[in-house]
Each structure stands twice: as C-alpha cells, then as structure tokens.
Amino acid sequence: MTSQDNLTREERKMLRSVFWRSWTMNASRTGATQYHAVGVIYTLLPVINRFYKTDKDKAEALVRHTTWFNATMHINNFIMGLVASMEKKNSEDPDFDASAITAVKASLMGPISGVGDSFFWGILRVIAAGIGISLASTGSAMGAVVFLLLYNIPAFIIHYYSLYGGYSVGAGFIKKLYESGGIKIVTKTSSMLGLMMVGSMTASNVKFKTILTVAAKGAKEAASIQDYLDQLFIGIVPLLVTLAAFWLLRKKVNINWIMFGIMFLGIILGLLGIC
C-alpha cells in the first residue's frame, strides 16, 4: 500500500475535501432508487472537478454516481477512495471501461457493510455503551461522554484512513484486475447480483392478492382465482407489474407517472373489490 507521503500536495488537498464531505453521505437519503447517491456525488465532486476538464466528462461522471449506494458509514470511505483512484485512471486512459467504476462500487458495498456493521454496530457500540452505562449507573455524568468518545474516536480514525487506503491501493488494484481479466468477472458478477437483488425485492415488496372467486359447477365452494394464479406461477402478478414498469422506464416514461399510475391502479382495484 502506498503511503500518504507518495501523494501529491493537490491529491492530499483533494482527499481532505472528500473526507469532510463524506460525513454528509448518510444524511442524504433520496428514496429507495438512489438512497445515498446524492451524498456520493457531493463527496466525489472534488475528484470529478480535479480529474475531468470538460463539462461533458464531468456530466458523465456525475450521472455515473446516481446509482443506488449504501454501505457502513465509518468504512464506506474505502470505496470512495478506490472510486476516486478509478476516476483518475478513467480520465487518463481513453481505453478504460468506465462501467467498471460502477461495477466495483456495487460489488464492494456488501462485503464492506458486512465487516463494518459487525464491527461498529455489533462490537464497538456494544462495548462503548456497556462502559458508558456502567459509569452512568453510578450517577456519573461522564457516562455519556465516555460512550461518545469510545465509539467516535475509532470511527473517526477508520473513516479517515480507509479513504487514503482505498485511494492508495486503487492504482495497483485496477492494474491487477485488468491484467488478470478480473475486471470482466467483477462487472458480470455485479450485474448478476443486481438482477438477483431486483428479483428478491420484487418478490418481497410487491404484493398482490385477489379476493375474487369463481363458482365451479358441482363444487360446494367457490374456487379462489388467487389459488389458480399461485398454481400457475407464485407471484406472477407482481412480476408482470414490475416488468411493465421496467418496460415503461425503457420507453422513457417519467418514473413519477409510473408510481402514480400503480397507486391509482391499486386504489381502483381495491374499490372494485378485486384485491
């Protein structure tokens, strides 16, 4: 890993700006489709402005980071540092595949969050809270102060050095990925992972259950249409709704119109007693 001493003065200044901006990332939730994407853009603005000279290149970089992003706050700067290094490489090498930036960012969110959530939420916070509570239970006002210090000092240090670590290993990391062909694997794997996430979110979040029944000749009870649908394909209606929304998005239909249309359809079906 390259130390900070090997960074230029301009790079250190740029990364300091990225570091302070990164604290706003988790306060910038903009809905399920982007989550912390606006915070990512704000965090990486010094990088984009430094490495890209034309408005067209800057616009492409900004659009590239409008994708969904969520990772443990105190360690997500490793991804920001790595992305900053990749943006630098992209600005210097015309043959660089810019889609790899999004792919690497998406593929690292899960592993980074797995480590970060386990350590910060499951270990550090519990230890800090235990010590703070034990002091507070004796009537000491230092309990809250000790808790905040024990938790936030390590978090601050890791947040700082993970940024420089990600940026420093970035060049070598990217070179190895390209030489080994790993960048293609990462891109393909992240695409597959994204599709799996969309599929699982569709199955768990998009609900439809009709209450309509059909009277079958000779049967004592009316048959439920929902049972027939489930026998055909469980979740077929949510899947069709999702595919229809995707098709409309591909046709450049405004996403707000799609959402309002689905809401209106749900209200109408509810009023008609269909579901």
Instruction: Assign a percent range to the helix content.
Output: over 70%
Strand order of the largest sheet: 1-2
Determine the number of helices (DSSP H or I, runs of at least 4 residues): 10
Q: State which percent range the strand residues make up.
A: under 5%
> Low-confidence parts, pLDDT < 50 over ≥5 residues?
none
Ends: how far apart? 59 Å
Mean of all residue-level pLDDT scores? 81
Q: Sheet with the most strands?
A: 2 strands, antiparallel
- Total strands: the figure is 2
Could you give a short description of this structure?
The chain has 10 helices and 2 strands. The model has no long low-confidence stretch (mean pLDDT 81).
Which key features would you list for this structure?
71% helix, 1% strand, 275 residues, mainly alpha, two-stranded antiparallel sheet, 2 domains
Please explain how this structure is put together.
The protein is mainly alpha-helical and 275 residues long. It has helices at 9-22, 37-51, 55-64, 77-92, 99-136, 142-180, 182-205, 225-232, 236-250, 255-271, and strands spanning 213-214, 223-224. The protein has 2 domains: 4-189, no CATH class; 207-271, no CATH class. Helices cover 71% and strands 1% of the residues. Strand 1 and strand 2 form a beta hairpin. The radius of gyration is 25 Å and the shape is globular. Pfam families: EIID-AGA. One of its GO terms (biological process) is phosphoenolpyruvate-dependent sugar phosphotransferase system.
